[in-house]
Amino acid sequence: MSDARNLDQPLWTPSPERLVGSQMTAFREHANARWGLALSDYDSLHAWSVDQPEQFWTSIWHFGEVVGDPGKTVLEHGDRMPGARWFPEATLNFAQNLLRRRDGDEALVFWGEDKVKQRLTWAELYREVAHFAAALREMGIGPGDRVAAYMPNMPQTVVAMLATSSIGAIFTSASPDFGEQGVLDRFGQTEPKVLITVDGYYYNGKAVDCHDKVAAVVAGLPSLKRVVVVPYLKAEPVLTGIAHARSWGEFLKPHQQVTEIEFAQLPFDHPLYIMYSSGTTGVPKCIVHCAGGALLQHIKEHRLHTDVKPGDRVFYFTTCGWMMWNWLVSGLAVGATLLLFDGSPFVDEGDILFDYADAEGMTHFGTSAKFIDHLAKLGRRPNQTHKLDTVRAIMSTGSPLVPEGFDYVYEAIKKDVCLSSISGGTDILSCFVLGNPVLPVWRGEIQCKGLGMAIEVFDDDGKPVRGEKGELVCTKPFPAMPIGFWNDPDNAKYHAAYFERFDNIWCHGDFCEITEHGGLIIHGRSDATLNPGGVRIGTAEIYRQVEKLDEILESLVIGQDWDKDVRVVLFVKLRDGVVLDDALIQKIKQTIRANTTPRHVPAKVVAVDDIPRTRSGKIVELAVRNVVHGRPVKNVEALANPDALDFYRNRKELEQ
């Protein structure tokens, strides 16, 4: 896409009808009426939300119609981070808030590529959860026990999570493409009593059997009392050799008569999920999130920032090993229908997700920046092959969406759509910065800071800056902060992860800037930031320029220690038939130099056959940097394609 356009104009502006009809507008009016305010726009609403957190989060509780007792106190120790406590007297149940409907409308729709389709109404979902919860209770599973899912993104996974949280047990998950050691690195730390798994799954049209891998994982988890196997590839899963195994049907059969769920009323900060960091620097950190924080934060993000309404049909391409699955499932709390998908998004050359959108009346289309980039490279134009008339919002995360990605969405997918690039992470189970239905979309920018999130960009001295690159920080506590890490009794690991850089300030590890529009641009992870000659450079600035070139499918950039400094090394994955000759190297360097600075120009450009990435699709600069420097990569099980690291070892090009 060309950069020649009017950059003084937004790519999209909400219509007057969308402004008036948005829940963001309704919430602002609700806050004005409740607290006697005169908030007139988003900036004033955001300022109030961080200056008056007790008023703001109380309003989210009531506007979101949370089922539970909020108690009298909203915030204790609000000057401590960590250490703040939200709604310390409150009681609620997470699952109860997601299962308010019991009617005959659809709650879940599932496509397993083009092989399997399933549907559950709200009444059927409630009934399935009731059966599963009764089976767990009969086993003696109770508050604080762990239930793990080694599952695709399918209805049974949602049922298991809701049943687990209904009784106060803790849910944790991984996707079935994880290898044996990757699962044991995660579940081995959290010691679940119950494992829900599957006989196999489909990927890119092929059936992948999971029996032997599941048997090995179960053998490595002595804490397990029961393994529940969901039939996906076959009507009857093979259970031979899997200890403690029952099929899904067998496990639920004794409890078919149960029609009601006994929702345990629990404290606001009762553990809900254990999530896992995806880094490759060691065994994954086990991040514990609480029920109340996840519920309030997700209601805020779904209802206000994404404008999800009852009856909307919400899709996000995700696996159960990525926090976007947990985020997606919370759409039930708004009364939305969830459109679940498992498999490859590139079945039928990337058409299948757009087929899904048209067939199911999708209103919210969630994907990754890499998916959008790849569609553009393929030259696909969904607006010429699909109607997409119900889609109101497109969301993108996983990595920064480059300005050309914004262009592509509006030129090749849909013009009248709120394109929301969003960023946050597993650490907070949500977003720091995200979309907004009442604000314009500016090319290359995330629209706004999240309500209730006191976001700043700090320079190296801890001073807030605007229009300059720095560290993304949050200066005040928020309910979706983790309640801690598993097996970290003195909170030493938790403190080291977020609070060592700046005292009493959450430092997220993103290198970014605040724009003149009040939006944000993420330039990459701080720990992957390049530092040639002592000048910090965000990796996203280089990726943007390189991946504009038709010859290059994808790239990865690192800093290599060299001659008492750091030099920039760019690895490129080329289109089939393209050769990295001197002419192409010069074209790459000239493109980078012309659009950035001389410091961004790589000292070396090296062709590789593959780019290593985590199972949620993020490229892993740090792992490659370790390989190039001859250092071990401690957690290769976090990678979807660990063999790709071999392409970076002992490269002759990097020895001179």
From TrEMBL:
GO biological-process terms attached to the record: lipid metabolic process
Residue span, AMP-binding enzyme C-terminal domain: 549-618
Protein keywords: ATP-binding, Ligase, Nucleotide-binding
Limits of the AMP-dependent synthetase/ligase domain: 101-477
Enzyme class: ligase
One GO molecular-function entry: ATP binding
Its EC number(s): 6.2.1.16
The keyword Cytoplasm belongs to this UniProt entry's keyword annotation: no
One Pfam family cited in the UniProt record for this chain: AMP-binding_C
Keyword ATP-binding: yes
Domain Acetyl-coenzyme A synthetase N-terminal, first and last residues per copy: 42-97
SUPFAM superfamilies from the UniProt entry: Acetyl-CoA synthetase-like
PANTHER family, sorted: ACETOACETYL-COA SYNTHETASE
Family as reported in the entry's similarity comment: Belongs to the ATP-dependent AMP-binding enzyme family.
Protein name in UniProt: Acetoacetate--CoA ligase
Organism: Denitromonas iodatirespirans
